[in-house]
Design a protein that fits this description.
9 helices; seven-stranded mixed β-sheet; single chain; eight-stranded mixed β-sheet; Metallo-beta-lactamase, Chain A; binds zinc ion
Length: 266
């Protein structure tokens, strides 16, 4: 019997105003599998992690999709946690080119010093694939105002977990996330309120229909969606696609085993 894989939402907010006013937390997503991976640790990630009872020293890898503050601001302090206060060169830091090297006027967002304390730093582009221990990580495409933005697929021992970051809707991004058992989408905007470079509920529904995950989760909820019954957006997608879709909640846990998928907390 394999150990379950646990996905914890350390925040489900995103976009400028939901972040500035902390309408929802913005600590990213923490995945415990054979290794512990933290994706997109935005403002408050460290605090939310401690509130959730997770130890920053137990993190093995940090993944950052792009160089916007709701995705990267707590990364450096969490890198200090991962390296036991910078005393042990360990762990993985993987991110878009903008985050690690800089792209035009964007980034880099991680100091050279913090990059130097990590054992392995990977700049990833859409379509890249690499192993970290026995965990395979692949990068997906996005169409965002940071042109180097990447999504991530983690091939865990209990199936593929895919994270679609901030992106405009386009059919071209869908193939990069095929095979997801659990699909997490940055659905910043509610139904019929699309803005450039972000997904609205109708866009997420198209993607979910094409990928057919066992469970889809909406996160990175913007202000307008956060104050207007966000749970309705997941319900609308479930009704229109027949695929179980939930609007994630702060501190929600999804527990994945080979045969089972359960939701706890939130
Ligand atoms: Zn964002
Ligand atoms: Zn963004």
């Amino acid at each position: 019997m394999k150990e379950p894989t646990i996905i914890t939402f350390l925040g489900t907010g995103g976009g400028r105003f939901a972040t500035i006013y902390q309408k929802r937390a913005t600590g990213g997503i923490y995945i415990r599998d054979s290794l512990n991976i933290h994706i997109d640790p935005g403002p408050g990630a460290l605090v939310k992690m401690l509130e959730a009872g997770l130890n920053p020293r137990a993190t093995n890898g940090i993944l950052v999709s792009h160089a916007h503050p709701d995705h990267y601001t707590d990364a450096e302090i969490l890198m200090e946690g991962m390296t036991c206060g910078c005393t042990q060169k360990r762990g993985l830091f993987a991110g878009s080119k903008s985050v690690i090297k800089g792209e035009g006027s964007i980034g880099p967002t991680i100091s050279r010093y913090h990059q130097s304390i990590i054992e392995r730093v990977e700049v990833v582009h859409p379509g890249d694939s690499f192993y970290f221990g026995d965990l395979e990580i692949t990068a997906g495409k996005s169409l965002h105002s940071d042109p180097t933005t990447v999504g991530f697929n983690l091939i865990t021992k209990n199936g593929q977990i895919s994270y679609i970051p901030d992106t405009a809707f386009h059919e071209d991004i869908i193939p990069y996330y095929k095979g997801a058992r659990v699909l997490i989408l940055s659905n910043t905007r509610p139904l019929n309120h699309r803005i450039p470079y972000h997904l609205a509920t109708e866009d997420s529904a198209h993607i979910i229909e094409a990928i057919e995950p066992e469970l889809a989760l909406l996160t990175h909820i913007g202000y307008k969606m956060a104050v207007n019954s966000p749970e309705k957006e997941g319900e609308w997608i479930t009704e229109h696609t027949g695929i179980r879709t939930l609007t994630a909640e702060d501190f929600m846990n999804v527990v994945l085993s080979e045969s089972d998928l359960t939701i706890r907390g939130g």
